[in-house]
Amino acid sequence: MIIIKLERFFEKDGYILALMLITVPLAGELKFYPLNEEFRVSFGAPVFFFFLSLLRHVPAVLPGFLTGAAVFVFRVLLELWGGGHSGLTPILYDQASGFFFYMTYDCLFSVLKANRFRERPVMLGFIGFMIEIVSDCVELAVQFLIFHTVVTPEKITDIAVIAISHTFIVMSFYTVLKLYETQSREKQTRQQHEHMLMIVSNLYEETVHLKKTLKTTEKVTNDSYQLYREVKGEDDQLSGRILRLAGEIHEVKKDNQRIFAGLSKLISNESLRDYMRASDLLQLVIRMNEKYAEALEKQIDFHCSIEGEHDEYHVFIVLSIINNLTANAVEAMGEEGMISLRLRRPNESMVEFQVEDNGPGISEKIGDIVFDPGFTSKYDEFGTPSTGIGLSYVKEIVTELDGDITFDNQQRGVVFAIRLPVRHLIQKG
Q1: Model confidence over 54-77: pLDDT tens digits?
Q2: Cα separation, 292 vs 181, whole angstroms
């Protein structure tokens, strides 16, 4: 158990404690005088409070003892360096009370378990205020014992006002920290959500390919059975082999149907979250492909424009189509370039997506062959061609949705345009 605590200490708390021993003495010297030369507000106490709240597996007295000693040594060295004193002893007496301030502060922080209130800044600030008042009183008591300092009501008032200012600083620290944590969680949640959207979008693509495979296996099964009937009686051995082959193909078809049914159920379980604003969808495509371009070590600028009024569109249909075209454009580009995504409504019943790049374009000799399965013009550094299924998939799904896809070579680059009926993209009432 002791070994585990030591491991935890050196993993995180050791670094926090070391940083605290450096920062708190320095922060204590950052001071200003808002009212007069006697009324001083420094950052030592609130910074100490902040670091204490970050520690998890440190003995209660240790931070206060080490910090008090560090502040004491630091101030003594500053006094010696600055001069103006008759000797070391007066300096030691003068700075000793600060050590007891931090010791008391740490002990009260541990006894009151102030860490429990990290999520409640107001309560945390009130506890910090009370702790500082008591710690200041202990420091005054030490000064009285050493120097016989007279404690006046005015001094108590100054201590209270300083404690209030420190409470404000502590609450500000934690409000900023809370805001940062909230933003970090929101960013992480958004990234996870986007990742899941892309996963389901890819599954949507697979259902399209699987649907095509089901049609193919259905046709091959029928053809095999017809061949069996033609051969039956003429060559029993061959007809038996054909029948077994037809049965095996039929089993493959049933397996594919089960997989297709499961994926379709997952994809078609539509809810409001399956639909997004058009602008959010295009921005999601841009963010994904910015990362893709970065992974390919390419400098590509992305632009987006939307014309007209648009409903919320089905996430997985739009992503699976537009992301494919955009990723193809990223792959086709050189080391740097520009890609523009456009969305417009030619009429009430149709919506048009455009993906334009300023890359090498498509040769006129190739033409519509770019939509054929297996066609590719992209090769890796070893000369291995890509799969060439991206554009064929886009063509297939667009056709299934009663839409069309075209491309138009520009002076530099190419524009792919996809027109789809709006009824396939919006949520059914």
Answers
A1: 777 777 788 888 888 888 888 888
A2: 27
